[in-house]
Automatic annotation (TrEMBL):
One of its GO terms (cellular component) is mitochondrial inner membrane. This is Presenilin-associated rhomboid-like protein, mitochondrial. It is a multi-pass membrane protein. InterPro entries: Peptidase_S54_rhomboid_dom, Rhomboid-like_sf, Rhomboid_protease_S54. SUPFAM superfamilies: Rhomboid-like. It comes from the Eukaryota. The chain crosses the membrane at residues 56-76, 105-126, 138-157. It catalyses: Cleaves type-1 transmembrane domains using a catalytic dyad composed of serine and histidine that are contributed by different transmembrane domains.
Length: 188
């Protein structure tokens, strides 16, 4: 588990943990908190991007947020293992908050206090920036910040730059998925 499901730039295995650590968690509470946030924002992001694009963005976000964490750890010399889906989930949260900045949000245990999605995103980015600079160790703030910045970038520019160019391939995939493969495939 430590070798493949925790990301650490000092490890012998560097690449696969960048994705696999997204699926491991420190405790049941850690997993429950991440899954609650993902559940809260997943229907919005799937409505915005579609299922296939959401899956591609989410998996890419896991790798990108871990890469940002690696860079920060190497730059500061603060090595240590990281795990969890929060970097990828921050991408989802940031993308939704960027696309729907006037959406109203609340904290689960304080539902009487509401705020806009745009305000929440600014606060989260400020907290993670401070945590990264000051070396707070409760969260992997670099992974959170990397995920948030990727989510903002993707929803603003990435869809047009990346996904639109893949649209013909995705249409073929949808046809194959719904109609099945064509029979007879011989040439004349």
């Amino acid at each position: 588990m430590i070798r493949y499901f925790t990301s650490n730039p000092a490890s012998r295995v560097l690449c696969s943990p960048m994705l696999l650590s997204t699926f491991s968690h420190f405790s049941l509470f850690h997993m429950a908190a991440n899954m609650y946030v993902l559940w809260s924002f997943s229907s919005s992001i799937v409505n915005i991007l579609g299922q296939e694009q959401f899956m591609a963005v989410y998996l890419s976000a896991g790798v990108i947020s871990n890469f940002v964490s690696y860079v920060c750890k190497v730059a500061t010399g603060r090595y240590g293992p990281s795990l969890g889906a929060s970097g990828a989930i921050m991408t989802v949260l940031a993308a939704v908050c960027t696309k729907i900045p006037e959406g109203r949000l609340a904290i689960i245990f304080l539902p009487m206090f509401t705020f806009t999605a745009g305000t929440a995103l600014k606060a989260i980015i400020a907290m993670d920036t401070a945590g990264m600079i000051l070396g707070w160790k409760f969260f992997d703030h670099a992974a959170h910040l990397g995920g948030a910045l990727f989510g903002i970038w993707y929803i603003t520019y990435g869809h047009e730059l990346i996904w639109k160019n893949r649209e013909p391939l995705v249409k073929i995939w949808h046809e194959m998925r719904t109609n099945g493969p064509k029979k007879g495939g011989g040439s004349k």
